[in-house]
Amino acid sequence: MISNVAGFKTYLTDYDRGLLEGEEGKASQMAMRILHRMLPVYGVDRFMDISAAHIDSTVYMGIATMEYAERLASLGAKVRVPSTLNVSGVDEFGWEDWEVPPEVAGNAIRQMKAYEAMGCIPTWTCAPYQTDHAPVFGQQIAAGESNVIGYYNSVIGARTERYPDLLDICAAITGRVPAAGLHLDAGRAGTKLLRLKGIPRALQEDDSFYPVLGHLLGRKASDGVPVVEGMEVQPNMDQLKAVCAGGASAGAIALFHLVGITPEAPTVEEAFQGHVPTTVLEIGMDDLREAYRELSTSQGEKLDLVVLGSPHFSVNEFKALAPLVVGKTCHPDVQFLVTCSRAVRMIAEHVGLLGPIEAFGAKITVDTCPLTSPMLPPRIKHLMTNSAKYAYYSPGLLNVDVTYGRLSDCVKSAVLGRIEREEGAWRA
Amino acid sequence: MARIVQGKTIIDGTASGIALASSEPVSFWGGYDQVTGEIIDRRHPLSSQMAAGRILVLPYTRGSSTSTAILLESVRAGVAPAGMITDRADIFLALASVVADEMYQMSFPMVAVSRSDFDSIKTGDHIQIDDSGRIHIQE
User: Fold this and answer.
1) Which of B22, B27, B47, B64 is catalytic?
2) What's the ipTM?
């Protein structure tokens, strides 16, 4: 069927048309109506199928986001493809340990229930790729949440556009998305070559390198597809997720290629799909040091809170943290918070990793994080984190200053009660 | 001086108001106060300006997937811009208007214009957006 939206011709399948005309119920009709009105904005004239979704509309921003979820649920919405859920506005069973206003908690939980009623998988995490619901290479997906989009596209080689909140759930309900951008081969070619030069191998092996690299990609490539050449080590999953989070905070990086490492970039030529890169930048230690400096806004050594886990902490990250804190005690004036998913907390507990971490004085929050939940007491003004995403957003969203440092420095500072960093290779 | 710029309708509708313009993109999450309509990104040139009821002239949105939700909240609270002019079809902003229409029958028009037309619109201009993507500008 051909139909017009604002004078724009669109080609709909019988299935699309049926949804639009309400043959599959009012919720699918509303979801398809929204998607259909968005087709001309995407500049394409048809939809394509997806086989999974990750829903970021779960983040509670106020009455409207709750009403939207409840409207869909009350119309009988059911997701048509397996759909994981991103973080919520509260830790459903732990919010009372913090300063979340009860009214916000009540609304956020109503919103959570609405998405669960639509048949979504209650993963409640911004690291769904570290649950057992990760997609596979080439899979077509609709994902919201910027770091997830980066990870699915870049590290796994699955295909998703940057879906805004509110649209991801429409895609999940209908199983359809505009046939655009990163879903198609052409949208996945590199746009800019970043050549690493003179970056010591020892630094590439250090965890503190990856959030900085991500931040730098965001700064240098904005919303393009950067291709990085010159990595000498094979990063692990957590290091790659740190690149995704950094790139999607400082910029809008939805896909990057690391030559010789990520699946669509065995070579520079393949990363650019045979095109010659039009922009080539050399990235040296000076550029990286500048990105490293940008991640901190703090001048002094004051410390109120160490926060880890954006994206949500993995079992392996708990495994790295536990030996660092064994036998130590967090300073009484400092709070130590780790955010992760319910599933990861459960595994960490079962394998004995949580014991020493809680004995140290750390608290664990699941389902959410301080950027999306109003949980921190106002007296917290000085943060330290090993996450580029926490570092980037905290000053604006939480009105605090922030210091970026590696995991061991976060622990050391928490014990001392003041910020102390091992600068190492970052020192100019 | 009065003049007319022809843009491309992204979201149809009419609006009029005073322009609030910047060539710097904004992330609405952390950058727009959904209760007051103030630009609160302290690194942005429009920081502290009230965007509620204005014609907001920005190239596009930056950053998080959550910008759409913030703009929807601001529509519901009555503190959204009256209309938007961009230099491209911004999906995150357009969706907020589509969903606001679906939920509350309150949408705002959005028009994309060429970069040179974009740069010609200044804060303080009186703007009228009509149904066919024409922008009437009174400097």
Assistant:
1) B64
2) 0.95
